[in-house]
Amino acid sequence: MSTDPTPRDPTVARAGIRDSEAQRLLGLLPSGVLPGRATRWVADGVDDPSVLALAEASTTTDDDREALLARAATDLGLGFDSVREARAHHGQKVVESMTASSAPNDALGFSNSFTDTIEESVRDSIARLFKPRG
To answer: Which of 20, 48, 76, 83 is deepest in the core (most CB within 10 A)?
Structure first.
């Protein structure tokens, strides 16, 4: 995610919401990034109650943040009818990024972010399974 605060076009934010929803459905989205992404989507001009709530959801649970993303995607007409459709969308985005002129640099970044995503997903799963006693 870009840290540049300059607003982009709302269509860019809508594409980001759809991409994030695909990643969520595929288990590839560490939900800890959602409040930051939502803050960016709001800055880009998305005015949706679920996105606004998600932008302020830094203290809620992962499941709550993911539910807000799912609701925003549905409310904005950016959801998927099936996991298969989400997988096709995500695959298309990966192929587009790998065939862009910046592909050599993007490939390394994609590899690192994919590894980080898997690692965070595994840690999240372990934390959910083995909750602290006390």
So the answer is: 20
